[in-house]
Specification:
Blueprint lengths: L7 E4 L2 E4 H26 L19 H6 L1 H12 L2 E6 L2 E6 L1 H9 L6 E2 L1 H12 L9 H14 L2 H21 L12 E5 H18 L1 H6 L4 H9 L4 H5 L6 H27 L7 H8 L10 H31 L2 H15 L8 H6 L1 H13 L6 E5 L3 E2 L6 E2 L4 E4 L2 H4 L28 H6 L21 H18 E5 L8 E2 L6 E2 L4 E6 L3
Parallel strand pairs: 4-10
Antiparallel strand pairs: 1-2, 3-4, 5-7, 6-14, 7-10, 8-9, 11-14, 12-13
The structure holds posaconazole (X2N).
Posaconazole binds next to helix 2, helix 5, helix 11 and helix 14.
Amino acid sequence: MAVLAPLVIPSAFGSLPLSYVLAGGTLVFVVLSVVFNVLQQVLFRNPNQPPVVFHFLPWFGSAVSYGMDPYKFFEDNRKKFGDVFTFVLLGRRMTVALGPKGNDFILNGKLSDVSAEEAYAHLTTPVFGRGVIYDCPNARLMEQKKFAKSALTVPAFRSYVPLIAAEVRKYWLKSPEFFEGDISRQKGTTRLMKAMPEMTIFTASRTLQGKDVRAKFDESFADLYHDLDRGFTPIHFVFPNIPISSTFKRNAAQKKVSDTYMEVINERRRTGDLSELDILNTCLRDAVYKDGVRMTDREIANLMIGILMGGQHTSAATSTWAILHLGAEPELQERLLQEQIDVCGPELRDVQYDDLQQMSLLNNVIRETLRMHPPLHSLMRKVMSDLSVAGTRYIVPRGDYVLAAPGVPMIDNQYFKEPRTFNPERWLEAKNMINLADSSDAATISKGARSPYLPFGAGRHRCIGEQFAYVQLGTIMSLFIREFKWTIYGGAKVPTPDYSSMVTLPGEPSSITWTRRTK
Ligand code: X2N
């Protein structure tokens, strides 16, 4: 049939099918843009802007080397260019500023100069929903953080520890990763990247959001949050609305989860029971902005999604890394058990919040885990007006993004001896506890970002979840240490990091083999 015959174009080479012409045209376009891109980098270097990491492909830029191992990428380019350089990442110009000064420059940047919401909202708003976190003016976020933070008091933490312990025990009992209903089981193998995210979501929802919210995870919430997770990826950072199933599921799940929180809110208002010390109740009572505007129930619902997503990936990754490091060091497990006995007595009474404060080795294990594996390797801001970099002639142009990598000083031997060695004991030395900037730096680096140890960031966007993270991780780890001895599955080493997700995760298989401690 004539309509199916390939369209033929006359040309200098005779007649060619259209597909050949299109392919040839595309090839010529790609070759020309690569050539133009290379020539532009070689010929037109602007001495008043940071050096640009050389890349063949326009738009794509250095995506592969950054995406595969950002720390190696930062280190390699620091050797070539120093602390400040620009690279192209999937259509964005990212200017990196390394070291404590770089962290200060970015994380303490003026509100009128750098914007987090302009860097993140396209990723986070479809997941969290409208009106909160990065989908509102920064002044609103500051107050939302204050509302949430005001729930995170010592009395609240005291109430959380037994709730976390109960959730962990319940999980062990029913989960196939642990006892699977058979409490007499004495040994097993656990895929940490299955078990720890589940334990994290159950414990965080139970404590931060209450019994009724936790109960939803036995019904629909687990699958819906799973759909939200799969819409919270670097792919969606680059293409927020890429038409693939994870995007559609993300959008549907956001609506359903938000609606479910609204139902919980209505029910709490109906019964008037706001007695639990959770963030939801605090917001229902107190979330009135300084200008008299009250947060709507929808905004409170969406804030709950953001808070749970935030706590989820970061804590699940950190507990997994910590358990893996301990799995590689059985002797450290014994010392942690001794600490449990020293603090809670030989009968090992249930751990309390105040006990956790006495467990310095346990807290140093968490601190050291966060030093080697801060969940977020890159913190970004969009540059809103031309920024000059102190001590250089560089101007970072408006429209660029700036990228802080607080994890870089944390593995730099200038600040931490043998930085690749997991050594919780290093935190017993006082010099590691505070800022290590020398006196000449101290004058130029304003407070908050001076420290080479910033796993919770610094400045106006600093994490509000630090204390909660220590309570959650400390309680879960205490229970693990009391119940099990473990090694990494197959006698393997601690896995290398996988940077392809939103947080730095241990590569698979991240499994442990455990035996019960007989009591
Ligand atoms: C294609 C490898 O993979 O070459 F969650 F209430 C809730 C952090 C945002 C990181 C974005 C890009 C990686 C490309 C790899 C809340 C608790 C938060 C804080 C290239 C070939 C979320 C985006 C990561 C780009 C890296 C936003 C989290 N506390 N939670 N090539 O944070 O705080 C929250 C806050 C972001 C990113 C990336 C590639 C408050 C590849 C191969 C492939 N990034 N990324 N939180 N790449 N390749 C959170 C900050 C907020």
